[in-house]
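Quick start: read one record
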Amino acid sequence: MKPNRIPHTYVIVFAIALIATVMTWIIPAGEYNRIEQAGQTVIDPESYHLVEQAPQTWQLFSSFFQGFVNQSGIVMFILLIGGAFWILNASKSIDAGIMSFLNFTKRLEKKKALRKIGVNNIVMVLIMLMFSLFGAVFGMSEETIPFVVIMVPLAISMGYDSITGMCLVYVAAHIGFSGAILNPFTIGIAQQMSGLPLFSGIEYRIFCWLILNVIGFAIILWWASRVKKNPAASPMYQLDEYWRKNHDVTTMNIEYKRTKSSWVSFGIVLTVMVVCSIMFPVSAIKVGTQIFTIPAIPVGMALFAAFAIPGLLRSYHFYNLSLLFATIWFLIVGVMGYEWYVKEIGTLFFAMGLMAGIASGNTPNQITKLLLDGMKDILSAAMVVGLAGGIIVLLKDGKIIDTIMFDLSKAMNEMSKTASLGTMYLIQTCLNIIIPSGSAKAALTMPIMAPFSDLINISRQAMVMAFQFGDGFTNMITPTSGVLIGCLGMAKIPYDKWFKWVWKIILLFVFVGFLLLIPTVYMELNGF
């Protein structure tokens, strides 16, 4: 497939906007009445009525401006997180954590019982679990690209192939991404745009994440075992000769050192945590319908200090890792105890990035440059969110969204709830092939799908899960995904060979995703 034949995401979004403009001339304008119910604005399903036609013309262009205005909070949220993680990645702190992790697993080889299980299997499961957690918690995607260069040679040196190495990082992270637990880029945005409490329904999503991991890890271990027994069975056997000849992963070029500035960062962070612990000695943590009163902030401060001080004595890399895990801890506390939304979460990660930059010994100018580089790297996704918002503006101002939902609801009223939810899941899955940005799809589809779920009597949370699965699985195969193409390029795996290997696995995941959606219709689940 030639790259120049694949339309740019912006071209696709503009084409959809053009189609939306034409639709405002063809589809009758209509509206539902909105009512307040349990603190949410919902549609009155019996109130649909026709209104005066409002065809759009020059608004095709002005709608993008208004889309950015409407989605400005989410756009800024994406930019802040992108910049923060760029600073952290530039410090090579995550790389250092991976290497420390691998060195630890080597010591397992001395245990006779573990040798019987297979130390390599344990190592691979632990690596995949870590990347899956990263994907599930903070939406690790672009960040997988540099790790491919580490894990592919590692996999080959263990007797496997580059596909196995690709799976250890990219596939594992995207299994976690698909079964997202706290991913702010997908779950966070989709729930906010659906009028749901942020990260609600976490209990069932954790269950889904575990199921997907078990299936995915089992497939990857089976493949690795097959290649180990017969390396020539891999479609990459000949091409992997490059890795076998030219790369050795026994050492990494990471300069471990202690910096005075890391102690400065630690002092600032700890002071803030002490003040917050005094102001909020206990927190009411909501888990589903249960509320637990615990000293979450003081506990987080104590854990941070316990891990940060030994890290400071080793290298600033390990201090930055403790800072990352503290950030995740306070994200959970803030969301579940203080109803944080994108503004607070974006600010939290922004502060993490600045403190990691200080700890790494960067000057203010260097931190600023890294922050801007990270924002520049993620700008494309942020731009798509604003552009997608323009499509919603066109549909709303053209007054055809409610008509579309009315006609769909009539067509789907004859379907079962399972069939209706499955249809929406299929739509999200197909849409992901041409628009791989989860944030953009959330901005484009959730304002339509969330109220539509009210009409067909399916919970909005179930619709968010249909979006989550539909957005996640096909990321591992869509040729419009820059992350996938980037990782394949790093691994030196041609797209056609990857496609032939992975397509059956993607179909399996899509089917399993549908099965996991069924309980959201027929069972009483927290948050649903």
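The chain is about 70% helix and 5% strand.
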